[in-house]
Amino acid sequence: MQLVDVQVTLHWLELGRGTSDSVVGAAVVQCLRKVFEEAQSAVLEPMMSLQVVVPESHSARVTADLARRRADVQQIHTRQDNKVIECIAPLSELLGYSSALHSLSSGLASFSMELRAHRRMSPHDEHKALKHVTGF
Fold first, then answer.
1. Same structural domain, 52 and 115
2. What's the maximum distance between 2 C-alpha atoms anywhere in the chain?
């Protein structure tokens, strides 16, 4: 079962005098983390189908950059003097990709992408994402 855009509503809370907002926030996060761990939940990330058209002279740099972005290269073929790189990559790794591709290819490459599916994150990447969102 997938949970998307989970919202939690607290209907009643009784606090002692002098209880800070940060203590309440930390307690809520701990409770939610425990609920999701016991439910054996997992974080899913959007995966994008990505097609990059790049001059052959710049293709090695672009391919290396895609590997660094956790892209799974499916196919590379030639179209005229260009390489067409077809891959699947996490959307989170493609933020700012337009500028990066422009720099890597001296402005000669182009790309298109579309949502392909959602995939379970690796435990390491899930931990990094949760730490980024929650701060711990």
1. yes
2. 73
Does 8 fall in a domain? no
What pairs with residue 52 in β-bridges?
85, 111
Classify the phi-psi angles of 30: left when phi > 0, otherwise alpha if psi is within -120 to 50, otherwise beta.
alpha
Structural domain for 111, as ranges? 44-120
Give the relative orientation of helices 97-104 and 59-68 as an angle to the nearest 10 degrees.
150
Q: Is 129 within a domain?
A: yes
pTM greater than 0.85? no
> Cα 50 to the chain's mean position, in Å?
14
For residue 93, is it within any domain? Answer: yes
Say how many C-beta atoms besides its own lie within 10 A of residue 6's C-beta.
9
Our CA angle for 33, 36, 40, nearest 5°, is 130
Per-residue pLDDT reduced to its tens digit, 10-32: 888 888 888 888 888 888 888 88
- Residue ranges with strand state E in 38-81: 44-55, 72-79
